[in-house]
């Protein structure tokens, strides 16, 4: 089926799409719909972007081992995340949200500093950002982190 000379739909398995992107060493491999996908593909969108993440206990937004160096903000993008299974901690400036029931959701708009941490093996979730805007992320310098979450992270992983 096509519309206007382009396919009108695509199908697939999010876990398989992401696994292939990881094998292909794609930048931001968990994100499989959005402005960063090849122009002309149905997966290239500017109105939203989608990621699927499978993570084990301790996997986090910070790759350098320092949770206070991982805070990020978005200038115009809103984020909606949906837990499929497992446990996920989402750190916000004044609180930590523990997503631990299938179908738990969190939504936050632009200007909400955040970071996250998988709390058990096999944690899986989808994230959607609206709209899909290249260069919208604003990393927060460690010196400006809204709170020190190091001790909380150690407690959650104990």
Structural account:
By secondary structure, the protein is mainly beta. Helix content is 11%, strand content 33%. The chain has a single domain (11-157), classed as Jelly Rolls (Sandwich), CATH 2.60.120.10. It has helices spanning 14-23, 150-157, and strands at residues 2-3, 6-7, 31-33, 49-55, 72-74, 78-85, 88-91, 96-99, 105-108, 115-118, 123-130, 137-139. The chain has a five-stranded antiparallel sheet, covered by helices on one side. It has a three-stranded antiparallel sheet with strand order 8-7-10, with no helix packed on it. Strands 1-2 form a two-stranded antiparallel sheet. The longest helix has 10 residues, at 14-23. It is globular and about 55 Å long. The termini are far apart. The relative contact order is 0.21. The model has no long low-confidence stretch (mean pLDDT 89).
